[in-house]
Every structure is written in C-alpha cells, then in structure tokens.
C-alpha cells in the first residue's frame, strides 16, 4: 500500500470513528429527551463528557489535516465537514444543558420527537461516514444524504408545531421562554446533521 493510500485511509477511518461517537452521544440525547424525563435528568452531565470525546476526535482530524500534503478530497471540505459534525454534538449538549440550567421539570412531546428524528439523522450520517471511502462508486452515499434532507424537513415541521403550541396553549410566559431556547438548540442540532450531509453531497458532485 502506498504512502498516499495510507494517508487517505487515515481520514476515512477518523470520520468513521467520528460518526460512531456521535451516534453514542445521540443515544444519550434521546434518553434525556424522552417521556422518562425528569428521571433521565442525571444523564445531562454525561453529555459534556461525550462532547469532550468528540472534540478530541475533531482535533485528531485537524491535526492530521495540518500534517498532510495529500488528502482524499478537498482540504476545505474536510475542515468544514469536521466542523459541522462538531456542531451536531455542541448543539445537542447545549439543548440538554438548558434543561438543567432553566430547571425544566417536565417534557413536551415535540421535544421527544425532535430528539428522535435527530438520532435518526445521526444514524444515517454514520452510515455515510462508514461508506465515505468508496463515495466515488457507492451511490448509496448520495441517497443517504438526500434521506437526511427528508428527515430534516420532518424535524422542521415538528419544530414549527412546537413553537406554535407554546404560544397558543395556556403556558406560563417563563415556560415559553425556557422551551423556546431549548427548541432552538434542538433544531440547530438537526440542521447541523443536514449541513454535514450537504458537504458530503458537494464532495460527491465535485468528484463525479
């Protein structure tokens, strides 16, 4: 195996590992934003630990990028994809931490659904990173990216319903403020999944 091939394999391996780590964060995220809340509130602190693990993975990719003259696709795309994947974890952690920070004592059904669709999108992203090394030949990479777009559309509809319900139900103003900020971070987490897939779509198109 040539040195160039080994260098490319490193990036594909790192992205595959990153996808797996984000799946693990998503599983905790979904447990927090479930009908078992507030019993799952104790998991919120572990989100920061998972975020640190993912930050370390992002640093590995950036370090490899800084030390590599040869990359499997554009350096800028590698950098932006890493940042967008980092955003997913950051926004999930931010949404979860706000539940504790704002002393949210109950759960709303839209939050449960938003967490579910985000985990679904993360699962598809993990499949994409697993197949990334063969993106020039594996047409399912593009299909998976388009599938995440559909998931994001569903999540966007849930988000809009969540806000509409907040402002039309007999909900205390303080609760509206709390949940609005939580929902905003949850939507950003899902959007980040789509943005990561947009980068991969661009990579596929550039190399078609």
Overview of this protein structure:
- It is elongated and about 55 Å long.
- The protein starts with a helix and ends with a helix.
- It has helices at residues 3-32, 44-66, 75-101, 109-131, 140-168, 173-206.
- It has one domain (3-206): Methane Monooxygenase Hydroxylase, Chain G, domain 1, CATH 1.20.58.
- The chain contains 6 helices and no strands.
- Helix 1 runs antiparallel to helix 2 (44-66), helix 1 packs parallel to helix 3 (75-101) and helix 3 packs antiparallel against helix 6.
- It is mostly helical.
Comma- or semicolon-separated keywords:
208 residues; mainly alpha; Methane Monooxygenase Hydroxylase, Chain G, domain 1; elongated
Task: Give me the CATH architecture, please.
Answer: Up-down Bundle
Strand content: under 5%
CATH class equals Mainly Alpha
Q: How many domains comprise the coordinates? A: 1
How many H/I helices? 6
Helix coverage percent: over 70%
Please compute the radius of gyration using only Cα atoms.
Answer: 18 Å
Quick one: CATH superfamily?
A: Phosphate transport system protein phou homolog 2, domain 2
SSE pattern: HHHHHH
Query: What is the averaged pLDDT score?
Result: 94
User: What overall form do the CA principal axes indicate?
Assistant: elongated
Distance between the termini: 25 Å
Structural class: mainly alpha
Low-pLDDT runs of 5+ residues are: none
Number of strands: 0
């Amino acid at each position: 195996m040539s040195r160039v091939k080994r260098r490319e394999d490193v990036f594909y391996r790192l992205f595959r590992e990153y996808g797996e780590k984000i799946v693990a964060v998503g599983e905790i995220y979904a447990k927090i934003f479930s009908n078992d809340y507030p019993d799952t509130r104790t998991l919120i602190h572990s989100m920061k630990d998972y975020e640190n693990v993912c930050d370390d993975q992002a640093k590995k990719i950036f370090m490899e990028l800084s030390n590599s003259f040869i990359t499997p696709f554009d350096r800028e795309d590698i950098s932006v994809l890493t940042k967008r994947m980092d955003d997913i974890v950051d926004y999930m952690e931010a949404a979860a931490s706000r539940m504790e920070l704002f002393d949210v004592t109950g759960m709303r059904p839209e939050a449960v659904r938003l967490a579910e669709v985000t985990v679904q999108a993360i699962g598809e992203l993990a499949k994409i990173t697993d197949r990334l090394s063969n993106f020039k030949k594996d047409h399912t990479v593009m299909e998976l990216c388009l599938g995440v777009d559909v998931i994001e559309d569903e999540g966007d509809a849930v988000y809009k319903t969540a806000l509409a319900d907040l402002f039309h139900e007999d909900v205390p103003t303080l609760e509206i403020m709390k949940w609005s900020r939580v929902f905003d971070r949850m939507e950003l987490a899902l959007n980040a999944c789509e943005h990561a897939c947009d980068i991969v779509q661009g990579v596929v198109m550039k190399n078609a």
